[in-house]
Amino acid sequence: MTNLAIFVSGSGTNCENIIKYFQDDSEVNINIVISNRADAFALVRAERLNVKTAVVTRSEWNDAEKILSLIEGADYIILAGFLLMVPPYLTAAYPNRIINIHPALLPKYGGKGMYGMHVHEAVKAAGEQETGITIHYVNNVCDGGEIIFQAKTTISPKDTPDDIAAKVHVLEMEHFPKVIDSIIKASK
């Protein structure tokens, strides 16, 4: 059995999609969904799907003992809209076992402050003709880990940042759980 811990900060559509994808899989279990925000709707989504949840304050993220005990037994950590930097103790404990999704084609539009609509607004302002998603391993550099997978979508000059976000969201829903599944299968 492969156990996953999912870290979230927001609404949780990716989190819910991952939970549903693995719901009937006898080889993969979602151990826990952890948020740095008590009001993250992702927690409600997880609870509705009978997944254990926890809220950890910003200062508690630096408490290695607390976090490692919360995710005890997890084989992988999945970042699904998690907006804090992963502390070095976690990247050391989970080398190439923390997986993030970013709403752009890294290395473009990554790094500090580049998340959610900030990314889509920057892509639009730059006049890009395409964007997409990047699924990557997490290291101690913001959006700097090894790229696992990318998928692209075209952008028309008429697309608004909201239109771009919607196109990227389709790619996230289609690819993120499948890529996680392929990583797990490849490691066995």
Automatic annotation (TrEMBL):
The record marks 143 as: Raises pKa of active site His. InterPro entries: Formyl_transf_N (IPR002376), Formyl_transf_N_sf (IPR036477), GART (IPR004607). GO terms for biological process: 'de novo' IMP biosynthetic process. It catalyses: N(1)-(5-phospho-beta-D-ribosyl)glycinamide + (6R)-10-formyltetrahydrofolate = N(2)-formyl-N(1)-(5-phospho-beta-D-ribosyl)glycinamide + (6S)-5,6,7,8-tetrahydrofolate + H(+). Pathway: Purine metabolism; IMP biosynthesis via de novo pathway; N(2)-formyl-N(1)-(5-phospho-D-ribosyl)glycinamide from N(1)-(5-phospho-D-ribosyl)glycinamide (10-formyl THF route): step 1/1. Keywords: Purine biosynthesis, Transferase. N(1)-(5-phospho-beta-D-ribosyl)glycinamide binds at residues 12-14. GO terms for cellular component: cytosol. One of its GO terms (molecular function) is phosphoribosylglycinamide formyltransferase activity. Its EC number is 2.1.2.2. The keyword Glycoprotein does not apply. It is an enzyme of class 2 (transferase). Residues 3-180 form the Formyl transferase N-terminal domain. It comes from the Bacteria. (6R)-10-formyltetrahydrofolate binds at residues 58, 100. Belongs to the GART family. Catalyzes the transfer of a formyl group from 10-formyltetrahydrofolate to 5-phospho-ribosyl-glycinamide (GAR), producing 5-phospho-ribosyl-N-formylglycinamide (FGAR) and tetrahydrofolate. This is Phosphoribosylglycinamide formyltransferase. It comes from Pseudoprevotella muciniphila. The lineage of its organism: Bacteria, Pseudomonadati, Bacteroidota, Bacteroidia, Bacteroidales.
